Amino acid sequence: MTAAHATATAIARHAKALPGYEARVAAALARLSAAAQAHAGRIVQATSLGAEDMVLTDLIARHRLPIAVATLDTGALHDQTLALLPQIAARYGIEVERHAPRADALASFAAEHGKLEAFPMRRSVEIRKACCAVRKLEPLQRLLAGRSAWITGLRRGQSDGRAEVPFAETEASTREKLSPIADWAWADVWHYIAKNEVPYNALHDAFFPSIGCAPCTRAVALGEDLRSGRWWWEQDGAKECGLHVHPLQAPAPRSQPHEPLATTP
Ligand code: SF4
Question: H/E/C letters for each residue in 55-102?
């Protein structure tokens, strides 16, 4: 890493106009527009408030698509992440729905495993998954209730486990899960953010490519995988919280390499 790269913003490090960028933006917008029409009043973007999701929120707002925007407020997010909510309201006029964990479930988890400040999720994968179930999975069910489609910012380049992410899939025979920028590169995401002056999480400038709950997210070094800063103490298995896992589906073979955190010239 050069000194310039160490102090540069995420835009300076990652944005690049790759061949086919304009076509990918147009195709993503077409997917969003078609979904908004097909699921009128029953479609939501579940935003993590990360870079990819901010691109999607910008596309939704810029083109006035009737798609609700919601997030899982786990009670453990960074201040920098929560700071985006008023920015989204001011910039786009969108009040992001916030779905928080149930107080009784939090109390019961703390009684059994200890308070979050003691990092119980680092003691075992089972406890970590139990925490994600309380703070993310159950609130997600409420976020999705009454909705026939949801939008995610998943990309194939994010990790091995996401290498085959489709643009659209049907869950439980009813609800559509749509990933309109599944084929975008990390450089595309940042090129879009730069061109459209999209607000983004300040942690991205501090080498956090993938941002989740504060106790489970850390900065990564250039050359490391984009999701290597999530649950870094777990050495094996997919770094997923369960939001995007198909329990009955075997991992697909890789056809597209995932991206290391790299600078762009
Ligand atoms: S990411 Fe960490 S703090 Fe957040 S729900 Fe999962 S285990 Fe709990």
Answer: HHHHHHHHCCCCCEEEEECCCCECHHHHCHHHHHHHHHCCCCEEECCC
241 catalytic per annotation: yes
Whether 76 lines ligand 1, by a CB cut-off of 6 Å, is: yes
**Which tops the pLDDT comparison, 4 or 201?**
201
Chain-centroid distance, C-alpha 250: 22
pTM across the whole model: 0.89
Say if residue 87's pLDDT is above 90. Answer: yes
Q: Which amino acid type is present at position 7? A: T
Residue with tokens 């298995």: 237
Total count of residues recorded for the chain: 265
Which amino acid residue places its CA nearest to atom 1 of ligand 1? 213
- Closest CA to ligand 1's atom 6: 132
Helix (H) or strand (E) segment spanning residue 46: strand 43-47
pLDDT at 265: 33
Mean pLDDT of 132-143: 97
Per-residue pLDDT at 160: 83
The token pair that represents 46 in the structure block? 């579940």
Tell me the three state secondary structure of residue 109: helix
Helix (H) or strand (E) holding 230: none
CB 191 near ligand 1, within 6 Å: no
Cα first-last separation, the chain: 13
3-class state of residue 148 by DSSP: coil
Q: Let me know how many helices (H) and strands (E) the chain has, helices first.
A: 10, 6
DSSP states of 189-226: HHHHHHHHT----GGGGGT-SS--BGGGB----TTSBT
| Atom 5, ligand 1: residue with shortest CA distance | 132
